[in-house]
Amino acid sequence: MKAWPFEEARKVAARLAKSGKGQALFETGYGPSGLPHIGTFGEVARTSWVRHAFERLTGLPSRLIAFSDDMDGLRKVPDNVPNKEMLAGHLGRPVTAIPDPFGTHESFGHHNNARLRAFLDAFGFEYEFASSSEYYRSGRFDAALLRMAERHEEVRGVILPTLGPERRATYSPFLPIHPKTGVVMQVPMEEVRPADDLLVWIDPETGERHGTRITGGHCKAQWKADWALRWYALGVDYEMSGKDLIDSVRLSSAICRVLGGEPPEAFTYEHFLDEQGQKISKSKGNGLTIEEWLRYAPPESLSQFMYNQPQRAKRLYFDQIPRAVDEYLQHRARLRVVADPAVPAWHIHGGAAPNDPEPPVSFTMLLNLASVVNADDPEMLWGFLRRYAPGATPASQPLLGKLVEHAIHYYRDFVLPTKRFRLPSAAEREALSALMAALRDRATDLEAMAPEERAKAAQDIVYDAGRRDPFLEPGKDGKPGVSRAWFNALYQVLLGQQEGPRFGGFVALYGIAGTIGLIEAALARTETPAA
C-alpha cells in the first residue's frame, strides 16, 4: 500500500501506538470570513482519504473535525456580500458577533458556517463541525487557556524572534475581547494572572485599564497560539496545511510543546497555479471556482485532480478538466477489476466501485464529437452514442448522461471559441485521400464489427494511411512507425483543434460515412474557414 494516503496513515498509526490512544482525531480548519472554495474541498477530501486509510490500516476508529475560526475579528469587508456599509461598522469584532449582511442567520459567522456545512454535506463528507466561538464560550478551552497563561513568557519566547521591533513590544498570545466595543484587541498585557483567571491591559485609545477573564470566551488566542491551543486542548493527531503555512506550523508546534502537548502529524500540500503559472489568490480571482469545475465535469474528477501529487504545484485551470475526467474514468474502470488501494478511485469511492455502468466512451471523445457536430443539444450526441453502444440511455448510463451535459457546456464555452481549421499541406492531402479511400473500401465490414473491434480496425487504417513521407519514423521495434505530425494534421485539419482522441475510436463513434464526409469537406476547402 504505497498510495500516499496510506503513507500518511502509517504516521498516525505510529503516533497512536506510542501514545496509547484508541481513537485518532483528524482536523481541518476554515476561516469563516469568506465562503468555502475549491481549496476547502481539497483539504477536506485529502484529509478524509488519510482518515479512511488509517481506519483500514489499523481497524481503529477516528473522527474528523471541521473547525471554524469564527471567533476571529473581521479584518476587512468582503467584496461579495450585501450591506457592506453595515459590516464596515463592525470591523474587529468576532464574525459570530456581527449581524448577518444576508439577513438569514443570527450572525455573519453563523451564515458562513452554514454555507460551509452545506458545502461539505453536498459532497458527502463525514465530519463533525466545530465552532471556535462555541468552544471558547462553553469552557472547552478554559484549562488550555490557563495553561497558556502559566507559560505566557515561554510562549512569547517562541513568537518574539519572528516579529519586528514594534510588534515585539506589544505581542501577547492573548487577545482580550473589549468589554464595551466587542473588538478583539491586540494589545500588550500589563499583567497575566492565571491564579486569578485574569488579564490586565490598557485600552490604547482611551487609556482605560481593564481586567478581563482568561476563561469563558472573554479572550481568545492569537492565531498561531490559537492553533497550538486547539491541538493541545483537543489532542489533534493529524492536520494538513498549505505551503504558505510551513513557518506557522513550526511555531504552533513549538507552542504546543511548551504547553506540554505533542503537535499533530503534519502534511504540507502545494498551492494551485493559474493559467500563467501564478499562485491562485481569492482576492485576485485568478483561479477556477468549484462551481465552474462542476459545470464542466463530475465531482469525482475534481477528487481525482486533488488526489494526484498533492505536494506538487499544479495548474488549476479549465484545460485540466478533460484530462482529470478521463483519468478518473480509467481508474474507476480499474477499480472494478481489482480493489487496489494503489488506484486513486479506491480512495475516491471509499474502497468499493460504484454500481452504475462505465461509460462506453471517454470524455475527450465526447468533446470531439460535440465539436464535430456543433452540439447544442444532448440528443445530438445521444444519436451517435446509441449507434455506438446500443441500448445506451441517460437512465441506463447515468454517468454517461452527466458527461454528455458537461461535454456540451465545455464545448460551448471553451472549444467553440477556439476552433480554427487549417488547410492541409500537399503531403497531408495525399495521406488524407489514402485514408478516405481505405475507409470507403472497408466501410461495409467495418460497420458490421462490434464497436471496440471497429475502433481497433479503424486505428490500423489510420496508421497505414500515415505510413508515408513526411510522417514516417522508426518504431520501437525498428519497423516503420508514424510520427505525431500525422495525428496533429487529423486534429487540426478535420476537427479544428490542437489535440484530440485516439482517432480510430472517433471514427467508430462518428461513423465511417461521417468521417469520410469530414475528409471530403477538408479536401474541398480552398481557404481556412472561420470557427
Report on the structure:
With 531 residues, the chain is of the alpha/beta class. The chain is 50% helix and 11% strand. The chain is built from 22 helices and 14 strands. It has helices spanning 4-19, 38-58, 84-88, 108-122, 132-138, 142-150, 152-159, 165-170, 223-234, 246-259, 290-296, 299-307, 321-337, 344-348, 363-373, 378-388, 398-415, 426-448, 451-466, 484-495, 503-510, 512-524; strands at 24-30, 62-68, 128-131, 174-176, 189-193, 198-202, 209-213, 219-221, 238-242, 265-269, 272-273, 314-315, 472-474, 480-482. The chain has a five-stranded parallel sheet with strand order 3-2-1-9-10. Helix 18 packs antiparallel against helix 19 and helix 18 (426-448) packs antiparallel against helix 22. The chain is elongated and about 95 Å long. The model has no long low-confidence stretch (mean pLDDT 93).
Strand order of the largest sheet: 3-2-1-9-10
Helix/strand-derived category reads: alpha/beta
Overall shape: elongated
Largest sheet: 5 strands, parallel
Radius of gyration from the alpha-carbon trace, in angstroms: 30 Å
Number of strands: 14
Helix content: 40-55%
Number of helices: 22
- How far the N terminus sits from the C terminus, by CA atoms, comes to 49 Å
How much strand content do the residues show? 5-15%
Low-confidence sequence ranges? none
Average pLDDT number: 93
